[in-house]
Write a structure and sequence with these properties.
Number of domains: 1
Helix content: over 70%
Shape: globular
Order of helices and strands: HHHHHHHHHHHHHHHHHHHHH
Distance between the termini: 34 Å
């Protein structure tokens, strides 16, 4: 009989796993209390004419069998037009909630609080995968109480399911790298596809995440690495493809991979006021002006707005590096903070808690940088985490600056900050000598 390994015969790992599971459940309970309490006590309002209001109406119309139609055109103008202005996954969640009898905004906010609590659990599992049980629990605790995460859970905006799906894709990517298989890469890619149906920029995460991850796998022939990278990207494409085909049918063959809102983003972010004034790096409705649907459909109107925005960029290329720098500084929370926080509070967030969240970010970001150095020095797999930073940088550079764009990287920031805190705690406890193997 072969010798019994610790994993097979030693009850200590099993006890540790049970303690981790119980600790994670306790943190999840706290996270749910925090989110529900915030939703009830602070009571962030969803304006009727707003992005959050649009998501509520989109879901309501789906539940009523009206299809995926422009929400305000029906409620304000009585007109029915197909839309792809907003990605479809959050409206689908809201529609399911409405069909289950939760058809009011308050109830749907609580549904998102449940999703946000799931994000805390996944962040804890991701932290354990990156740095061990202690890191997992610390990461979950941070995520439970971090205003930049729990605020969005009380507002009907896509950041909540997006954070959950991004964190899940990172966890699955780590599993795929530990035991590479086509199925694991395909599954991780499918979750990225779901994230793209929540926020369109996640489609870029597929190549950013899977190509470098697969090509750097040790002990794998080049051909297999390429196949694994292809599997990850293909998983995302396969999930998004039915929605893309639906858009082609609704908009006379137009290619709309996820949404038409890139047109409004480029038009509203590229004009004189957003390039050469105190509002540089922002998005302004007065620059966008809305889609003109008088004699064209939404896809054609979006294409016209996209072309107008790109034309402005082309005419002002000399100013582009400075504008992009301001956009990045806004998203990463280091520029024109008062104006930035005030503007973001108009999206339904609490001004007070948005301010607290920004200050908390200033603490977590340096810790995450330390955690990244620690993880790199100990040869931990960090590319899945780093890929989300790359996604945020690209998204901001192309569009405009907003701290909610940072949500793709928030799970990674929380995990890396937890790595730093656990490392520092152990060093202090041991009087300068770490007991950790890393």
């Amino acid at each position: 009989m072969p010798p019994v390994t610790a994993a097979e015969g030693d009850p200590a790992p099993l006890r540790s796993d049970r303690r981790f599971a119980l600790g994670l459940l306790a943190v999840a309970a706290v996270a749910l209390v925090v989110r529900v309490g915030f939703a009830i006590v602070v009571d962030p309002q969803v304006a009727e004419v707003s992005d959050a209001g649009a998501y509520h109406l989109l879901g309501t119309h789906l539940a009523e069998g009206r299809g995926y139609i422009r929400p305000f055109d029906l409620t304000l103008l009585g007109e029915v037009r197909p839309t792809a202005e907003y990605p479809p996954l959050l409206p689908a969640v809201i529609a399911v909630s409405a069909l289950a009898g939760i058809d009011g905004v308050d109830g749907q906010q609580l549904v998102l609080c449940l999703l946000g609590t799931c994000t805390v659990v996944v962040v804890g599992l991701l932290g354990r995968r990156v740095g061990g049980r202690a890191v997992g629990l610390v990461a979950a605790a941070i995520a439970a109480c971090y205003p930049m995460l729990f605020q969005s859970d009380a507002v009907l905006m896509p950041e909540t399911p997006f954070a959950l799906l991004v964190a899940t894709s990172l966890l699955l990517a780590h599993r795929a790298a530990a035991a590479p298989s086509a199925g694991r890469f395909l599954a991780a890619g499918a979750v990225v596809g779901l994230a793209a149906l929540t926020r369109a920029e996640a489609l870029l995460l597929a190549p950013l995440l899977f190509v470098p991850l697969a090509l750097r796998l040790p002990g794998q022939p080049t051909r297999r690495r390429l196949l694994l990278a292809f599997g990850g990207v293909a998983g995302a494409v396969l999930v998004v493809a039915p929605w893309t085909m639906r858009n082609a049918v609704r908009f006379d063959g137009a290619l709309v991979p996820v949404s038409n809102n890139l047109g409004s983003a480029l038009a509203g972010a590229n004009c004189d006021k957003t390039w050469s004034t105190s509002q540089t790096g922002l998005w302004l409705y007065e620059c966008f002006g809305g889609f003109d649907l008088t004699d064209q459909d939404e896809a054609e109107a979006a294409a016209a707005q996209r072309a107008r925005g790109l034309e402005y960029v082309g005419d002002h290329l000399g100013r582009l590096p400075a504008v992009v720098a301001v956009r990045e500084a806004r998203t990463w929370g280091v520029y024109d903070i008062e104006r930035q926080v005030l503007g973001e509070s108009f999206e339904g967030r609490s001004l007070r808690w948005q301010t607290i969240g920004t200050r908390t970010w200033w603490v977590l970001a340096p810790l995450a940088a330390v955690g990244l150095v620690v993880a790199l020095r100990r040869r931990r797999l960090v590319w899945p985490l780093v890929s989300t930073f790359a996604l945020v940088v690209i998204t901001t550079a192309v569009t405009y600056g907003n701290q909610r764009f940072r949500v793709a990287a928030e799970p990674a920031v929380v995990v890396l900050a937890a790595v730093a805190l656990v490392r520092l705690s152990d060093v202090v406890r041991r009087g300068g000598r770490s007991s950790l193997p890393w």
